[in-house]
Amino acid sequence: METGVEETTDAKKGLSKKQRGGIILLIILVCAAAFGVEKWVTSKTHIETDNAFIESHIHSISSRIPAMVKRVTVVDNQFVHKGDLLVELDASDYQARVKTASASLEMARNETSGDYAQVESARASIGLAKAKLDQANLDLARGEALYAKEVIAKEQLDRLFTARKIAQMQLKEAQEAEHHAQAVIGLSGTGSKDARVAQKQGELETASLSLSYVRIVAPSDGYITKKSVEAGNYVQPGQSLMALVTLDDAWVTANYKESQLTDVKPGQKVEFTVDTYPGSIFKGSVESIMAGTGAAFSMLPPENATGNYVKVIQRIPVRIAIDKGSDPKHLLRIGMSVVPTILTEKTFSEVIKGR
């Protein structure tokens, strides 16, 4: 009777401790395997890195002429529109240069008009000299005929020869005067007929262009940063005065490991978070993949053929365009740390099959 009671008691107790432990271990192993497979599949369909930063175009604002700063119309972190005045330089020197160049141009035009008059006068002198030479030739021909008939004396014939020589020299002198007048205004050779006027016109245009540079305006919409100029400073050409950062076309540069880019292609969707705004998710898309690794374009690229080769996983920059509607308030700033995730859109079966 006692043996039957013990069997009934064991049946009521159910599984033993060893069996229950085995079942729990099996459940844990199944859950761990499922979790591991999920993580592995996710790593193939969601490519993530924390080596990424916000970047954008930075315009360096500088002067194109040497001048004194008259006024500065912006402050650091101010938003400006394209064409807004940033810095105004003192225009006194350049206004004077424009006036001087304009006066020189008018003088050149007047002088050129006088030079043209001299050319016309020289041409008239040539015509007169030719007429005198023709008359001298006729007089000489008549004199020779009369001298042959012994009508005039030898002395009169000699005077006619001398008169013709004088007429010839006068014609040559008039022709040289014409050449000189033409050379003054550039009519001879390959020169331009208005060379002097063109030179003064160029000087006036250069002075006017320099005068236009006294107003330094914004090249695009953006925010002013690194302002280092104040009214009263004397600036030189090329000197950096401030920087202008555009945020409308900002992008993310993500440095992925080369082993992560197997399935990454331009156009794939991207989701990313920023350390500054935890919980906020921004969106974008893969725009392009750099043509080389970051090390290949460094100042001292690796020389793997030297014999000291150590394999290091390289990182390749990926440019990610930020969706326009993802950051309407321009919360993102250049240099912010980003954690982007590229969605390759591969299915579970494709990952398992290794496609």
Task: Kindly summarize this structure in a few lines.
The protein has 355 residues and is an alpha+beta fold. The protein has helices at 2-13, 17-45, 92-148, 154-185, 195-212, 348-353; strands at 46-48, 52-55, 58-62, 67-72, 79-80, 85-89, 215-217, 222-225, 234-235, 240-245, 251-257, 269-274, 282-289, 315-322, 337-343. It is elongated, with a radius of gyration of 47 Å.
Structural summary, described in words:
There is one protein chain. The chain is of the alpha+beta class. The protein has three domains: 45-56 and 248-353, Elongation Factor Tu (Ef-tu), domain 3 (Beta Barrel); 58-91 and 211-245, RNA polymerase II/Efflux pump adaptor protein, barrel-sandwich hybrid domain (OB fold (Dihydrolipoamide Acetyltransferase, E2P)), CATH 2.40.50.100; 93-210, Up-down Bundle (Four Helix Bundle (Hemerythrin (Met), subunit A)). Helices cover 43% and strands 21% of the residues. It has helices at 2-13, 17-45, 92-148, 154-185, 195-212, 348-353; strands spanning 46-48, 52-55, 58-62, 67-72, 79-80, 85-89, 215-217, 222-225, 234-235, 240-245, 251-257, 269-274, 282-289, 315-322, 337-343. The strands form three sheets. It has a six-stranded antiparallel β-barrel. Strands 3-10-8-5 form a four-stranded antiparallel beta sheet, with no helix packed on it. Strand 12 and strand 13 form a beta hairpin. Helix 3 (92-148) runs antiparallel to helix 5. The longest helix is centred in the middle third of the chain and has 57 residues, at 92-148. The chain is elongated, with a radius of gyration of 47 Å. The two termini are 68 Å apart. Mean pLDDT is 82; it is low at 188-193.
